[in-house]
Automatic annotation (TrEMBL):
Database matches in Pfam families: Amidase (PF01425)
Gene Ontology molecular function: catalytic activity
Leader sequence segment: none
Record's protein name: Amidase domain-containing protein
Amino acid sequence: MGFFIPPPKVYKPAAEVDLGPDSDEHYISPNVKAPRVAGFLVKMLAWVLETPVLGWIVLGVLKRDNLVYKLVSDAEIPEPPLFTATHTWQAIQEQSVRVTESRLSPAERVQEAVACVPAAAQAQLEPAAGFRRWTVRDFHRAYRSGQATPTMVARRFLAAVEECSGPDLNMGFFISCDPADVLRQAEDSTRRYQQGAPLSAMDGVLVAVKDELDCLPYPTSGGTRWLGSARRCAADAACVAQLRACGAVMAGKANMHELGAGTSGINPHHGATRNPYNVGRVSGGSSGGSAAAVCAGLCPVALGADGGGSVRMPAALCGVVGFKPTAGRLSNSGLLPLNWTVGMPGILAATVEDTLIAYAAIADQSKPSPLQPELNLPMLTRTRSMPSIRLAKYAKWFDDSSEDIRSLCGKALQMLRTHYGWESVDVTVPEIEEMRLAHYVTMGSECTASLAAKYLDSMDRSEVGWDVRIALSAYGSFSSRDYLSAQRLRCRQMYFHEKIFETADAIVTPMTGVTAYALQDDALSTGELDYINGAALVRYSIAGNFLGLPAITVPVGYDRGGLPVGLQFIGRPWSEATLLHLAYAMQEACGKKVLRKPKVHYDLLTKE
């Protein structure tokens, strides 16, 4: 080990870096040097890191061994810092879109989105051959026809939550769910349908809300057992309020990794969220509860928050769609300020069509046009007729995943070429590992700055999970120099991606480097540190957050163990419509073969 710090990296100017397929830029696979620890070892490490002097020495060694000093802190970087990932208005000529007027209400935007979705082949609620997921339009159609009511579905939902939260399954989907509140909302929606006046296609549709977003009557605890009482929740988050205006039924607060400080979804306070495809596997984090609830059929749509792949990564592990729009496209009002410049709300949904409908409902139209372009909704009825699309692929990065993921994602790209004639363009995306480390420094520094003075400095650390105590120790070790160096790397990456998007419509990658890994019993009460699996899970997530780019993941199959695999598209700023087109095309090309029934699943619409 020792204390020798290797010489810092000297970066050449970003404009001199070759982004072509034959670039001599060296790809660094995540250089994680930390064994998995859980149980007693997690407690011991937390105690060491919180000990004066000794803790700083150990943290210094860990940062050295994981190349934080070499690639970020002490590096010679010619670019100035870029402190935010916001993007100004850009005139993007997106194909096959419907432009919405800024004056439209959330409910009116939902109706616009429904008009962009291909008509359902069947109006009956008889399941097609094989497994299918009920969608927003399925629920709306059933409510309008009288085949089901929101109240009926809400009662089935509450029974399912009680069952899956019991000792036999212990799925850990929700932190809090108020049956009386859910039934009150459902009964109000049922009356609107009986009067022939539903507010929108989302009226009566259940939506789970990650415990990082304010949603009355619940406290917002961020997955902790202390923050809910320390921070008063006075109103709904903006995106929650917009969904309510559409008649959606807020189903409760979904479980999450404590403070969003992990990728497993293991929460020692509220239980580990288990993967519905295999209850012995993780759901991912930190929006694991939202992803698993959609996967298990408890709701067709859920809200999450994405600061480092926290929507998209659990969506991929649970076999559903995960969507993070451009930074600024959704309002952060009512979102816990855990990481100001990299985090934002996101959507998890059963299908791309449901993702579009929810996106239309919660898009923020309150800002003046110079700061945000008009809202384009993709006309999914015309996806097949779209002209050529160019997808940028960095082969070394794309292939840095498990054999099954690499094979399935490669075949998915081939299907897009076969079905649509869209081509892949080989490029180099430089400094991937450097960007991951810079994002970690940024996220950790902002989390500490946000929580320290008001909460962490005055609280009893025993209230915090052991794994998160370790994370907070690491976050608190970053200096202003570390943070500034990270923002200079953000500036470089913004330049690289802008150049790539001059010749490509989107960047395509796997969503994760591994599928859902095993839940270990020794981690359930303490959490765990598994930085090797953690780095593999976030390998393809970072650009969406660090650079504020829109990104979406869609299921493309299952590994040999039956666990879901997702493919990701990363787009230009404000190109959400294009990404939704790409995801819909992928969904349709894959067809029914990506629809295997999870081992834990509830049919809320046709169950007697």
